[in-house]
Amino acid sequence: MHCLCHAYVADHVGPRRRAAAFGLLSGVSAAGFVSGTLTARFLATSSTFQVAAAVAMVAALYLRVFLPDSGGVSCSDEACDPLLQASSCTSSTSSSASSSDSDEHLSPRLPPQKGGLPSPSDMFALLTSSLALSGAATITFFYSLGEHGLQTALMYYLKAQFGYSKDEFANLLLIVGAAGMLSQLIVMPILAPILGEEILLIVGLLGGCTHVFLYGIAWSYWVPYFSAAFVILSAFVHPSIRTNVSKNVASNEQGIAQGCISGISSFGSILGPLIFTPLTAWFLSETEPFNFKGFSILCAGFCTLIAFIVSMRIRGAQSSACKKSTVQHEQA
């Protein structure tokens, strides 16, 4: 579902404003998480599932009634943004030309499909067709692995290390959700046009590393609450990756590209518990090799650190390529 939402946004928002739009989409999702968590605390267990099903039905009806099918046609900033639209036909024509030029620049990397679905080899070819896409896939995998490794170990670690109860853990989750919502709804739309998604991605990954490492080396019960504040920065990661991917594929590839990124993220979310659950149990048991209860969380932090290093290398490679292209253009 998330990949389709991102593809729909990419079809209706121009590249220049896409980072802010993806941030708003993630912020609304975080707001739903916070609202759902708060609502669940006041509902009986048997009623929780009924309310969730009713809300899902309302969302499906809203989708069917109010959202028109994009038809896979993307548009430029001027064509998508009502604030940038002009009333003349000339402006409309230039917007269409801009959109066409953009699609020509991002030529389709998938072979034409005759009623079938792209094969895994086609998806792999798409992700490896450029440094930006392969880097986004690598960053997504390692960051998702570390993120879900943290989620797997955190509750057991906090209970063993500081005696956290379920209410204290729920409060921590609410702080994390509120920080992510604030970041994506307010902070990211302001910073995205100024810094760009590449810088936001690096800042977000740095904040994510700090967030996880502080959990792992927490020396007092209040440190996890302080660490949760860094979600304001780490919330930049996923919208920035989605924006970077959407800018590097053509309009007819938005769905498949976002789906590939979602699939890689899901693979990391599956692999994370398989790796970090036994590791956490080992270091919280009486047979641990050394006394460091947060070791599994520290390992999750190293996964996010790998993602940060990859983002820095990609940024450096893209800057070098840009400078080289500029020099060649000036010499020509």
Task: Walk me through what this model shows.
- It is a multi-pass membrane protein.
- The chain crosses the membrane at residues 21-43, 49-67, 124-145, 169-192, 199-217, 223-241, 261-284, 290-310.
- It is found in: Membrane.
- Keywords: Membrane, Transmembrane, Transmembrane helix, Transport.
- Residues 88-115 are annotated as: Disordered.
- This protein has 332 residues and is mostly helical.
- It has a single domain, classed as Growth Hormone, Chain: A (Up-down Bundle), CATH 1.20.1250.20.
- It contains 14 helices and no strands.
- α2 packs antiparallel against α8 (166-195), α7 packs antiparallel against α12 (237-247) and α7 packs parallel to α13.
- The relative contact order is 0.15.
Low-confidence stretches: 76-108, 110-115
* Helix-and-strand structural type: mainly alpha
CATH architecture: Up-down Bundle
> Beta fraction of the residues?
under 5%
Distance between the termini: 47 Å
Any idea what the shape is? globular
> Class in CATH?
Mainly Alpha
Q: Portion of residues in helices?
A: over 70%
Radius of gyration: 22 Å
Name the average pLDDT: 76
InterPro entries: MFS (IPR011701), MFS_trans_sf (IPR036259)
GO molecular function: transmembrane transporter activity
Protein name: Major facilitator superfamily (MFS) profile domain-containing protein
Membrane topology: Multi-pass membrane protein
Task: Please name the defining characteristics of this protein.
332 residues, Growth Hormone, Chain: A
Set out the fold topology.
Blueprint: H1 2-12, H2 18-40, H3 45-66, H4 77-80, H5 89-105, H6 120-127, H7 131-162, H8 166-195, H9 197-216, H10 223-228, H11 231-234, H12 237-247, H13 254-284, H14 295-331
Helix pairs in contact: 1-2, 1-13, 2-8, 2-12, 7-12, 7-13, 7-14, 8-9, 9-12, 9-14, 13-14
